[in-house]
Records
---
Amino acid sequence: MDQKRRISSEYEQELLQVRRKLVVMAERVQKMTLKAVRALVERESELAAEVILDDREVNREEVETDELCMLILARRQPVASDLRFVTIAMKMVTDVERVGDLAVNIAERAISLNGAPPLRPFVDIPRMADLTVEMLNKSVTAFLEQDTVLAEQVIAMDDQVDELYHKVFRDVLEIMHQQPETVRRGIDLQSVAKFLERMADHVTNLAELVIYMVRGKDVRHIGKRD
Amino acid sequence: MDQKRRISSEYEQELLQVRRKLVVMAERVQKMTLKAVRALVERESELAAEVILDDREVNREEVETDELCMLILARRQPVASDLRFVTIAMKMVTDVERVGDLAVNIAERAISLNGAPPLRPFVDIPRMADLTVEMLNKSVTAFLEQDTVLAEQVIAMDDQVDELYHKVFRDVLEIMHQQPETVRRGIDLQSVAKFLERMADHVTNLAELVIYMVRGKDVRHIGKRD
């Protein structure tokens, strides 16, 4: 292989590595999210403790991915779509890492809630978690396959998560009104729903970044402008 | 001026423009934060409506700053500290923009709370806002003057905001326990405190990014690793 081709192939490998790191991080935070909600529903605080440990990996991967991206920008000086890919990857890791932080927040609330009698059967919270994980899954596929249609589906799904959040919020509020002794637990449950709703917001950011990456057009804030 | 010097001076101007845009955005979200809390304390929903409008400017500025940074990366192919500056600026605008979103969230809760009788005199919430704005102010100075000591002060101040958040949370919980009819308003107030606490987290991210930019060393997650 001649020198030029060798360098180009190394460069391809580096871009591939960024892609792979993002996928690994995204898969990890999906598992953490499901585990944190299982810790709550099945009252298994040990699962929650695992989530808290898993987050160290996510934090490590965020720093590594950023460093790799900077190295590529410095060494390879990419332009056009490669440049967009690398800079957007740096923004994406931030959102993925914050999903991991939110899984930890849920795990912490699960530990607190597991120490008291269960407040109510959980129906909507696991649905929120399933939806959020599905959104994250679709975002990753959209990212890998440069699929803006899929990314737009993710953005649309965020409304379902918001609706479920408001439903949990109202249901729990009603219980707290009627049984003031449940206020502490009720607020913890509302927080869990809120954390899932924020996760879905971060995943929506990911989908918007995929669209931006593919089309070179910024769709962020378009909904907000209305 | 010869050709090379002209280009270099244009490049300097572009970097300066990124810097200026970040400062303008940061100042705007500081004002929005104070205005949103005043809307609550002085029960002036018109101020809250202003905050919601101001956020459009912040969103516009985020997109513009990102585009400018991408342009610089593509055209000038910066290396070393300039590269770090540009990529970190792209991360910083995300955090600043989210502080703006949180000011909007506070403004929305203020409008809701202003429609009901006041729950309690506000003492800790304005203190949280003042602290957060002071942190943001110091972060901007640290960024402009490459002052890592100041950035570390910002990181340390985050604990004070966290403490105040937990104080507001407990105080409001107590009121809700004793007067279940206040639960709705209590939760809105706790949310306002939570939004301020999240703002301070974003500002802490900014300070960590300043340290990373200056030292070329990543301090993110160091606290979390313990």
---
Amino acid sequence: MYIASKDNPKIKLYTKLATSKKSREENALFVLEGARLCSEAIGRWKEKKLDIHSVFSTQKALDKYPEYIDSTLFTSRSETFHIVDEKVSEKLGETKNSQGVYIIGGMSNNILSDETLKHDGKYLVMNNLQDPGNVGTILRTCDAVGADGVIMTNNCCDLYNPKTLRSAMGSLFRLNVFVCDDFSEVCEVLKKCNIKTYAAVVDRDAQAVDKTDFSHGVAVVIGNEGRGIQKEDVALCDSRLTIKMQGNIESLNAAMAAGIILWEMKRSD
Amino acid sequence: MYIASKDNPKIKLYTKLATSKKSREENALFVLEGARLCSEAIGRWKEKKLDIHSVFSTQKALDKYPEYIDSTLFTSRSETFHIVDEKVSEKLGETKNSQGVYIIGGMSNNILSDETLKHDGKYLVMNNLQDPGNVGTILRTCDAVGADGVIMTNNCCDLYNPKTLRSAMGSLFRLNVFVCDDFSEVCEVLKKCNIKTYAAVVDRDAQAVDKTDFSHGVAVVIGNEGRGIQKEDVALCDSRLTIKMQGNIESLNAAMAAGIILWEMKRSD
């Protein structure tokens, strides 16, 4: 179906989802923008690993990105794949030079349990991270090093924030991501799996990351950008680890610290 | 001197410098914003390691950030330290919730030579990096790991771009940064110092970063975010190194790759 009006209900739904976390949660839907990112999502949908609610593209984008977007879907699956007017695209686009390709996708719901985790796996846990760019970068890095999964407590910024999804650059579709209510429940499940939990801290007394044995199942917890992991949560972990360096350690941002730790976790493989 | 007007020449100079690279280069001046960042700059100025052209602060900021900004300087050094009207501050502020503290600083000019480099030092070279956020993050990480210096070829984005300075969070004042015209000249100076140069590449045939001997003087070159280092420049380096991983290596962004390499360079210390 061709969409010419900004008042089309699907267009209204898209803009609502793009700006409101509440709306995303109520509908269990999220939005994506960009030819490559949407192409990856469509790929996952073809593998039946992602639900897609709606796809929107301008005719210009279909002509410009044939390697990313299969235009035949817009006729064969026209209830889901919509060509939209340039003006409608302007309303949907969040970045200045929007590519004119958009998706409404369905949130997937990975349940954290001793059956869904690999007991010898390598996991990263995000606890109270607030910057969407950091969360996205950490997802990318987990994907890059081949981590077995990412666990996010829901005091973090929203996984489906458009900015997070942009920074994550499709890693979300390749990773096992678990969003959980409560950190203590996360620790209980990890304990059940014999996965050792480490709190990443800035503390000279903690174990050095490069002297840590990662040969078994392990989960490292990264905390808030400014305040780190709160004491009660550190106490729930089996141990504490730190990155020991000679420089001005305060200069290491949360995503970079996570990256160095992930690198150390995986180099032992 | 109290500044009430947006038409004050110093205010006009600030806004020009904030938006124009050309103006920064012509005047050899740059701008900074934020209480903590300006406080670090003033600290360096007191140590006579940074020139300061002008400091601007609202009265509100002086009251709010006494731990950062010494208000006595605004009377004792009133030719340089100016209290500005809130409206003037609004004109200067680049971020939404500006803190009301601003500096015009003088660029320093570190000359790259066999006398200014430590022959057993650890250096990072940025070649054609275009994202100010990445450059800032890499500066922060060099500071965190205690690298001996950073060399930037001037095909990179501007070191004094306000966004770079914000991401670098004061690391610029703690690091030896050399900005150079030409990559081949950089390689010549490094060679003269017997500092071994490695091109960081995405190539399975290159030497693994964690199997590399960093016990001598070494400089690692990081290239453009999308295209890496161009062939001719790789050929100028002594050797090539890479980060070998099982995951989707393409997901590693330039700043994260630099961070992992810096970590490996410094862990041998």
---
Amino acid sequence: MGKLYVVGFGPGGYAHMTAKAIEVMERADLITGYTTYVEMLKEFFPDKTYLATPMMQEVKRCRMAVEEAMKEQTVAMVSSGDSGIYGMAGIVYQVAEEMQADISIETVPGVTAASAAASVLGAPLMHDFAVISLSDLMTPLELIWKRVACAGESDLVVCLYNPKSKKRTTYVERAAEILMQYRSPETPVGVVRHAGRREEKSCITTLAEVQEVPMDMFSIVIVGNSQSYVSQGRLITPRGYRI
Amino acid sequence: MGKLYVVGFGPGGYAHMTAKAIEVMERADLITGYTTYVEMLKEFFPDKTYLATPMMQEVKRCRMAVEEAMKEQTVAMVSSGDSGIYGMAGIVYQVAEEMQADISIETVPGVTAASAAASVLGAPLMHDFAVISLSDLMTPLELIWKRVACAGESDLVVCLYNPKSKKRTTYVERAAEILMQYRSPETPVGVVRHAGRREEKSCITTLAEVQEVPMDMFSIVIVGNSQSYVSQGRLITPRGYRI
């Protein structure tokens, strides 16, 4: 029976790939995914067969991957981070079911961008948090703002994925405005671009000033809760231990 | 200069450790952590020097780790999952600062329990979610319920860590009651115990029936949002693609 692995390979470098992700990619007959991810992987697995598809063609990419697996191939469908968090795992299961494909599917979890960004910033995720994408391609904008407000109201640390794109330039500012209804403008905020990759850059700012930080779809924004603080250049959310 | 790595080794097996976590543990002069974690690692790194400390002695464990690093040692302080999510990263930075330790500290992120559990259940984390611990050892219970309610109100997928302990037997039921104020009692819920370990067990139930599932501190509970569904034994939260 053909086998389709949905692999999250972590933030991007070899260091943060799991042993299982590496093993699966080394063993696969075909590695497929969004062009940017495939290009990242060629450096580490140069001799593999790749099938790259452009962005916005997720369903087509899944169909192709399922079709290849149906030919008794071992296919690794890859994405950065964790394939189970805003990843391809859900759509792969949906497409395989619709195609009535008699293949085996396995999700290989990876280090998600929130974890990678947090490790760069210090220790901002030591307490309860919400993960919210600011992309409104497939989510009504009203629901996104409602989620940001609820996270603000209940003092959750907030981790924003897809904070900015060419079309969505003001959403981070709006999210910060909503959070400032519940938290001080001085609340520390960490921004990491390309977490865990060679091009990694990070900075720590405040809710009031976060809109000044250059960012894009490769950035992660982590907004502290009311207890978070900055010390020695690190963003820390205390857990409550007595030191 | 001494070096202290705060290492998250993922759910427990070798397969889900990152290349970096493996490399750091192989290279460390000393591996230290809570007894249960140290016992897990001995199988994979049998020849290392270990220092195990019982639970509830987190500050003491950090002091010892910092002291060892101050002797020019390379120390790996380990925890399962991601060391940056409810892990030891925050307290290590706090203790090292209080001790004015002139050492280098680096956090090595890992696959967090939410990711491991999600990969077992299907694809429940395809959309925005909240991660909330039901342990009230260091968080006021009122704040925990407030967070659960806000997550319910804004239709976030909810991932509960530490759902039950010997002392806290009714908290999951209470959390489900709160969520049922906003979501159908038929909302699918996945429970995974020992995700990613040999003893792994999982089941899919509903909000109305989740309190019937045996669980403990090694379990993770993932409550779907209003769009989540179960198909072919998998818990799926759709992202919104047209199939």
---
Amino acid sequence: MTASLQDLARLVRYYILISTTEAGTGHPTSSLSAVDLTTALFFKYLKADLDRPEHPNNDRVIFSKGHAAPLLYALYGAAGVLTESELKSLRKLGSPLQGHPTPQFRYAEAATGSLGQGLSIGVGMALNGKNLDQLPYRTYVLLGDGEMAEGSVWEAAQIASYYKLDNLIAIVDVNRLGQSQETMYGHDTEAYSKRLAAFGWDVVTIDGHSLPEIEKAFEQCFAVNGRPKVIVAKTLKGAGVSFLADKAGWHGKALSAADLEKALKELGPVDTKLKGSVQKPEDKKPATTAPVDVPPPAYKKGDAVATRKAYGMALARLIDKYPNLVSIDAETKNSTFAEILMEKKKDHYFEMFIAEQNMIGVGVGFARRGKVPFASTFAAFLTRAYDQIRMAAVSEANLKCVGSHVGVSIGEDGPSQMGLEDIAMFRAVHGSTVLYPSDAVSTEYLVEELIKTSGIGYLRTSRPATPVLYDVGEKFPVGGSKVLRSSAKDRLTLVAAGVTLHESLKAADQLSKDGLAVRVIDCYSVKPIDAATLRKAAEETKLMMVVEDHWEEGGLGDAVLSALAEKPVASVVKVAVRIMPGSGKPEELVEQAGLSAAALIRKIKEILK
Amino acid sequence: MTASLQDLARLVRYYILISTTEAGTGHPTSSLSAVDLTTALFFKYLKADLDRPEHPNNDRVIFSKGHAAPLLYALYGAAGVLTESELKSLRKLGSPLQGHPTPQFRYAEAATGSLGQGLSIGVGMALNGKNLDQLPYRTYVLLGDGEMAEGSVWEAAQIASYYKLDNLIAIVDVNRLGQSQETMYGHDTEAYSKRLAAFGWDVVTIDGHSLPEIEKAFEQCFAVNGRPKVIVAKTLKGAGVSFLADKAGWHGKALSAADLEKALKELGPVDTKLKGSVQKPEDKKPATTAPVDVPPPAYKKGDAVATRKAYGMALARLIDKYPNLVSIDAETKNSTFAEILMEKKKDHYFEMFIAEQNMIGVGVGFARRGKVPFASTFAAFLTRAYDQIRMAAVSEANLKCVGSHVGVSIGEDGPSQMGLEDIAMFRAVHGSTVLYPSDAVSTEYLVEELIKTSGIGYLRTSRPATPVLYDVGEKFPVGGSKVLRSSAKDRLTLVAAGVTLHESLKAADQLSKDGLAVRVIDCYSVKPIDAATLRKAAEETKLMMVVEDHWEEGGLGDAVLSALAEKPVASVVKVAVRIMPGSGKPEELVEQAGLSAAALIRKIKEILK
């Protein structure tokens, strides 16, 4: 006999309550409000092979309200794939059942818990299903009412309707109560419904505790084509337990043993032998393209090519070899040169418009479905999505970010458009790879290195055209560097990348004519950094100058210092941007910031005199 | 005779065209689309004393579409306060007329240019006018259609309607064309109007080149009470010049000399002697409260008090001395303890709900109107607003950010809630002050230091209760530190702050019993850092260990290295979080990350053996 949804919902509530009380911490009430909605979803509509969470045909379920993790785990408990004792490991050291979902839990599609990010991830997964894999899976996203205040939700909402994602179904759990007070709209579900309708969604507004209404709502969602769908559900936080339901003061609090006993009594007997069954999905193969070899990049030494342009060239060249590449951009594709990929392979480019947070979330969605997304915009504007990038690392997403227009060398547009903190930002992302090419050849190879290196990757590209420095045969491994000027008589080492490398080379060549030997290192791999080469140079020259078009904090200078920290053998001078730049010609601003060859020569002569 | 709006609009167009062509760069077409809208605003409705841009009764005008800076400058040119030759300094080195508005231009209310931020700043200014200064000034915000894709705009929109800001008037310049392609909705003004109406705004939809429609729209706005108002205007990018108007391919391009000649011919003769007059505002005094002395903080050494709680206590204590203090929080006030201020002085607390980007923008608005806003949430979630924080520095805003729940020591909630990159992020903000107290007394004094230190300030607070270390009489100047353990025999210096300071003290005391002397420095001022004290310790002990509950990049460790860089005399070991933490008890996670006293003792013994 099939278990009834009512019985399963009661079991799910039981698991939520016992696991949070066992943990002594967690969010039982925020979980309880969505029990009926998700129990109906899981055990009547969801199609997923629970033995194969990675199955490409599985429907995807994202808990954007990540603090409802006890509910997520409880649902899998009710489905029979987690035991009661496993559920009771909630929030304990080493348990995959963390306070908020992470990939440590095998059924979590992504890490959530920083609110307002799940819908973007869902958009990425839905876009992947519809446009890339061409599979009929659906993507479900559970949102809390509180997180609807996050702008990123509305960025995702607009893109979902722009791309007509009718395979995306959102559920908004309007339980009225936030962390410290009532939400902006309380139980006024209409406030959400009319906003979502205005954003192009098909909306069903229901009582989120009425199973007949819930079932009708899902069925209405399945009947609509051409638009994303949302179920806006009025619920009670803590629903199912009278002394919790719709009561303030219970956010993020586990019940005491005594309260638990009271709650369980009220819940009535549950059958822990009960097992809800989840439908299996179809077994359709995703659409794929076979990889083919591609020619090496073609540039001549000395040609002037901006690294941002080489980035676009690289994507377009490499997509045949790596058919899982996807390019997304925040309406800057003619500046970042993502447009070169778009022009070559339109169906692997997705315009994300001026909404960087959602762009990164969509990238996480693609990455978690096996694609290699490159998300590009001005480096300055990637700061907009730092929370999403940080969370992408928790999601273990294989996401590549590309920031163009870095530093004062962009010129006239002024400080709002200058990426001056991007290295600091990406260095402090767990497990990140931070690469900063100085010419077209290294850019091309470093793009491929990023594809081959899993995790969060960052490529820093520059606006100005700079001369090609390397032969096409050169290798650029992650963690490497290139010593471009070197002699036994070097009295100082210049460490640089991007425009400052070119200034450093000019300075070294001029100083060499004046009889002063200076080593120059192209430090294209900022993280991991080539500690061995830097140490050797430090030991041999005893004096280093790290030159970067970035604020003085957290950038290449700090990375070099960090590499030398435990055995410091050289004095290290950081040359970086220290005053707020304005508008001006690139060369004027580079000079003003003390990053020009002339400025470096003056500084070196002063130090060495 | 008063100049007609038509003649003034023609003059404004002339200034836009000649200034951008003179610069050889810039955004003439994005400026031209909004000429008629803003000319009517400036010369018929705006109330501002142009001799006193700081006048508290002036209406505020914010160009959220900052790339329309040439229009902003041209309007002031037409108002007679900028000469043609000054206008021609656009985008030149040292000119206050930068590519995007910054406070270098005396009439700019804030820096813009990173899109989608202006409405939040406007919300801050409107809230200030209505609720704090209680002045009748209006705040006008010009937005582009492209930037309506930014979620932060919708965060601002919902808060404006929540606070019934009927002194706020937005103008959306729907010119259809973005940077690289058409916007999501092209000329479908209804798409914007219905969304804004759903978000609670009073909407007028018009032809943005019809002066009668524009005038009617403003007058309709003034007639509505209790809601923010928006004029959604269909315009042509490049309007007024036939070969530019509504044509793709002209984004961000100045006209050549030949094209300029053609354009000016078409524009017809302009009278550069024409001067538009702007109405003067009333002369009402802002509501103020006289400052009164407050008692010092009251804690006893050894009491267990979380620094986050001391932060709330400090705000509540100091508001009488600094009546310009304002507290804003992203629905975490019972965690950050901003609620202590709210409970004491409700009208100086503004709930910003779960929308961090808008919270920071609102803070910039308050700051630019002379308030000292403290914006608080979990440190992890401040990453959400990094772009706004970066831009706040360009705005020269006196904004204070407070991030609670830092590091692994928060425990069970897991990595999504742990601030592990906040120091890296805030160090790399221009002119920032980064403070990291370890006990309640220093927290209280550091809050006051932040009030007294202009610019972007950051206070890092912790979740766990920790013992009070200092007497209430102690001083904590910015740029200082405290040497808490010291002897002539010290063989190593531990540098720490927050929970790791307490672990370091325990480690040093234990090691001291074992006969091993270790110095301990409370490095409460991360930026600026106390280089002299660190250098002395480095020279005397030759070995330092920097211990921080933060990723290893960009944090306290890098700050210490940077302070010692030019004369490295000690080996510096960074002890920081290196693996992705999960859930667990705070003490388990601190131990797992190698930050516990026991772990430090093991590491120190190993190094010194």
